[in-house]
Amino acid sequence: MKRFIGFIKKEFYHIFRDRRSLFILFGMPIAQILLFGFAITNEINNVDIAILDNSKDATTQEIINRISSSKYFSVQQYLERGADIESAFKKGKIKAVLNFEKDFSQKLIKEGSATVQIITDATDPNTANTISNYTSAILQKYQQELNKSITVAYQIVPQTRMVYNPELKSVFMFVPGVMTIILMLVSAMMTSISIAKEKELGTMEILLVSPLKPFLVIIGKVVPYIFLSVVNAVIIIVLSISIFKMPVQGSLFLLGAESVLFIITSLALGILISTVAATQQTAMMISLMGLMLPVILLSGFIFPISSMPVPLQLISNIIPAKWFIIILKAIMLKGVGITYIWKETLILLGMTIFFIGVSTKKYKIRLE
Amino acid sequence: MSISVQHISKSYKDVKALNNISFEVNEGELFGLIGPDGAGKTTLFRILTTLLIAEKGSATVAGFDVLDDYKSIRNHVGYMPGRFSLYQDLTVEENLNFFATIFGTTVEENYDLIKDIYVQIEPFKKRRAGKLSGGMKQKLALCCALIHKPKVLFLDEPTTGVDPVSRKEFWEMLKRLQQKGITILVSTPYMDEAALCDRIALIQGGEILQIDTPPEIVKHYPKKLYNVGADNMYKLIETLKGYEHQYSVYPFGEFVHYTDNRSDFNSKELKLYLETMNLSNISIEITKPTIEDTFMELARL
């Protein structure tokens, strides 16, 4: 036991003397949370639009008023001719144009229908989609108000309610994702690099020719990073609660326990990487390419898994991050207990055991 | 018997690193493996320290088999790899304490063993190992390899890249350690260090050329050896190599070591030849062969 403690002490010396890594270790989560929370967002606010009003009557004026008074849009420009639409878009500022047809009001009253064209700049498809949805919603609402006096024989009234995230804050979606990425990165990359470092500098050679069991060397490498990762997880959660008002509906204890489980999964992955990587550089490349990309792209963090092609959906199942994100969202936003997420927990646990098993098998007690 | 090596062979892909090597090292002996780079010295060390597995043959260290009993060996040997392999970001003191701890001992417990060496680096004990000079690093590495009082000490080229004064000191330390009953297996490419060992094995291309005490090895030198000197060293070598009766010509310090292939060699005859080839200040004296001469002679065969 004394040997083991001595080894862990040495690991902490390494960690605290490498100022640059330490800065990355604790600076990265804070920077990422703030970046994702403030800058990267799916919400639209104050989108600049232009109006081409060919009829200029009371109805179109009312619609324009409603649109510009919503917080989503700000009317920047009134166009005179249809030919101006193209150039308005090309300047880049205008994201959408509303084109009212001639005699809008008259047609609406006499013929019962009038057309307004919504043209959006789809260079950013997500935003374009959101803009067109929001405008349609405003138009629809106005139409309902117009029809209030008339009783329609049959009518379907959709009543939408957004649960768990009623304000549709995208930070609620990013926090679990960022937390997953950071824990994965810190745990897997840092351990694999630190084990590869011993190999690269030749100290592994001396450690092997010592009574210290190889198994203990690995555990000794892992323990300090469990500690650091937990600190990181706490920083992320505290930041997201205090700055972004992220709710934690479920039990904090369960959240902590699941986080520790995921940290161990990532550490096991890190050990696995270190059994194949001989240098720090290789370990880093494998961690970045092999872990970061799948975590960002295939875990459902940014792109919903349900809209992926089937093969990718299948691949996403073997990515531990996917399951952890599901667990995090369930605990933080839905406030469920272990009875609802035991399946995901079990999958993570199984993966951890598998990674540890493979790395123990692959771990070398000699040099080759 | 402290180390016993029987018919060990080892290859890396197509390269044969060790070919049927056998030798034995007695308890308390200072045994040297002498050979150039790539002779297979490091491979042999790694097999004996249980880091590599030999393809053929068997070996025991301190009575333990390198394959079946590798765990016991790891408890009882000290190993200093050829490359400096301590933690560069830890101080001298922390490195020493760390290695004492993982061997389940303390610095105080075996301090008498390392005292002579440690006092020399003690003034720098708060310095990080990476910032030490080459000689200091070697002393620290030796301390770390000794801290658990090993029965057998493996030193792989401990003096490579170390200045001559430190090299001399290092060998004096080894002599003192030997007196404390530690068996030492040391490898070196420097032939002058070989004379300081009890017995040496000359090794080249993965094969042992000869094993004996340094005086015996020199005694076996088959020819009369001459120190030949002249003003123009380069021309002297070229000229001697062109001499019809030359057997071997090697530069050796400020002289050339020359052997003749005739038994009735006459130095006057050679002097005359050299003079006709426009060399001046010629000196020819008989000299005692060194281990290096023996090695070169054996390596020729």
Secondary structure tally: strands of chain A: 4
Q: Pairing-aware structural class of the strands and helices of chain A?
A: alpha/beta
CATH classification, class level of the largest domain in chain B: Alpha Beta
Which topology of the largest domain in chain B does CATH recognise? Rossmann fold
Mean pLDDT of chain A: 87
Number of domains of chain A: 2
Biggest sheet record of chain A: 4 strands, mixed
Uncertain stretches of 5 or more adjacent residues of chain B: none
Order of helices and strands of chain B: EEEHEEHEHHHEHEHEEHEHEEHEH
Computed Rg of chain A: 28 Å
Shape field of chain A: elongated
Sequence stretches where pLDDT stays below 50 over 5 or more residues of chain A? none
Computed over alpha carbons, the radius of gyration of chain B is: 22 Å
End-to-end distance of chain B: 31 Å
Helix content of chain B: 25-40%
Give the total of domains of chain B: 2
* Biggest sheet strand line-up of chain B: 6-7-8-3-9-10
Q: What coarse outline of chain B follows from CA principal-axis ratios? A: globular
Q: Which key features would you list for this structure?
A:
heterodimer; A: 368 residues; alpha/beta; abc type-2 transporter like fold; four-stranded mixed sheet; elongated; B: 301 residues; Rossmann fold; 2 domains; six-stranded mixed sheet; 11 helices; 14 strands; globular
